[in-house]
Amino acid sequence: MMSERIILGHGSGGRLMHQLLREMILPLTGAREILDSAVFDVHETRLAFTTDSYVVSPLFFPGGDIGVLAVNGTVNDLSMVGAEPLCLSLGLIIEEGFEMEKLEKILLSIKTAAEEAGVPVLTGDTKVVERGKGDGLFINTSGVGVIPEGVDLRPERIRPGDIVIVSGSIGDHGASIMASRNGFYFEPPLNSDTRPLNRLVRDLLSTGSAVHMMRDPTRGGVATTLKEIATQTRLCIEIEEDRIPIKEQVRGVCELLGLDPLYVANEGIVVAFVERDMAESVIETMKRRPEATEAAIIGEVKETPAEMVLLKTSMGGTRMIEMLPGEQLPRIC
Amino acid sequence: MMSERIILGHGSGGRLMHQLLREMILPLTGAREILDSAVFDVHETRLAFTTDSYVVSPLFFPGGDIGVLAVNGTVNDLSMVGAEPLCLSLGLIIEEGFEMEKLEKILLSIKTAAEEAGVPVLTGDTKVVERGKGDGLFINTSGVGVIPEGVDLRPERIRPGDIVIVSGSIGDHGASIMASRNGFYFEPPLNSDTRPLNRLVRDLLSTGSAVHMMRDPTRGGVATTLKEIATQTRLCIEIEEDRIPIKEQVRGVCELLGLDPLYVANEGIVVAFVERDMAESVIETMKRRPEATEAAIIGEVKETPAEMVLLKTSMGGTRMIEMLPGEQLPRIC
């Protein structure tokens, strides 16, 4: 049963958002399944296409700003289906009265991030809304990529026995934003993990067909992403709490604010499902890249219980992982 | 000299927006020239890519709503570079508290408009912002299209002697929105001209290489579009007031509100620059389509005075046409 009005939880990436998508947006618009990117063919070429709007608050946060996030987020969505990102679009919705100096800073971040990822901004659009009808700046980036021949990353390729890998420590992005909103500061600083993943993915795909599927666990965190995949594949994903890399500072912020790092957003890590025999060599390949030095095996795929994510806790128990139920961290990206 | 803060005029499509683009957005992001769509090659295929955010107010207006506008606007931007639109993305930024019923109505409009244009929505994103940090609903649509071999529409192809054609009466979209904001009603109703132009463009391109360039004169209207093109090509565009099709109701709204229809936004017409000898046959082709029954020759391209748009008025005088200087109609699309 859907509510009569939109609530913040509909944007959380969790259960409410999935309900809105499944019951309304997908059937009404005819849009396809929930994926990082849509994949389609033109002539003999396989293309990927994705879009994301960014409404993060604050606009500037430890380790980045809305501009960097918007570039990396879309580069990463393309990368997750194995595409080499070709170009980005940039849609700005600016609130009247927004300081030109801040806009300039954010545009410069976009330029720098686009150069770093090696993906140009090719087209854009600028709209201005009256004071009080926006919140400084919202950004949409869409992107187009090309999927190299032979690359085939899909949930259907996941099989029982596959190994689950994360490329880095989890929760950095969400925790750094929540820390900054609450005025917590750390030494050394806790930064967002926003970064482009296209080069890491290119290296991963060079290992052949060992990688079956990838996702970047943004809104809703690793927990929500795994639950989505378990549901889609009708398989069980079992992960071990002790093997999941989490920074001490992230643990600290989460404890203070009553958050579970498994549900906290990431903007620079990938969860990969990998052929069992190849897992060690994939980890080695990942660790050679600076963005994945903490890469770790965190679990595996099992046949049953179907559609479940199980967490083996440090205490020796087993906990069922569900999607983020409502709203945890509004406007995290 | 740029102001210290964003003002509404920066989103008008006119002079201020061009200044912001030229002095800040293009140099800082590295984005290319201001065009309806970016064009790039993948393997042997020429693709077009475009983005637009829609912040129109009110969300529902005579003849359409924000959803229809968002689909048609992006379909049309792709069409203007001669591309056959392949797919769209849909980014929603929803304000907390927005009525589910309105959202459903708009999503249904999107579905209907996408079906009518024959262009599917392939991917999307949903964000929710707190009450008071948005204005009901903002939509971003981006789109990808493929440019058929041999199609080459560029300002550089415009030559002195080319004929300027509009595909229909001007100002309908802007005038209908302004009328609705001001509580004017007409019998028969004055509707927005929002419509997909991809089929009209396909027919136009079937006439061979007669069409040199096309633009859809949205924000800033026909005047701003022509001035942009005169500046880019360093040629003169001379148009005749008496030949420009304008509905009586549009004239009426503009007179009441002190607007010039030449600067009022359109969402379903095209301005085409056409080989002189082929102009009559192009007009005939256009008129065969229901969306261009009012197609008309409105002027021609001359060598000098360079970078000028001249309007020969009904009274026998000549007036210089400049870009929309500041803000005329905020949030018209």
Determine the oligomeric state from the structure: homodimer
Main-sheet strand order of chain A equals: 9-11-8-12-10-13-14
Structural class of chain A: alpha+beta
Order of helices and strands of chain A: HEEEEHEHEEEHHEHEHEHEEE
Uncertain ranges of chain A? none
Description of the molecule:
The structure is a homodimer of 333-residue chains. The first copy, chain A, has 333 residues and is of the alpha+beta class. Chain A has two domains: 35-146, 2-Layer Sandwich (60s Ribosomal Protein L30, Chain: A), CATH 3.30.1330.10; 155-321, Phosphoribosyl-aminoimidazole Synthetase, Chain A, domain 2. The first copy, chain A, has eight helices and 14 strands. Chain A has a seven-stranded mixed sheet with strand order 9-11-8-12-10-13-14, with helices on both faces. In chain A, strands 1-2-7-5-6 form a five-stranded mixed sheet, covered by helices on one side. The interface between A and B is large, with 82 and 82 residues.
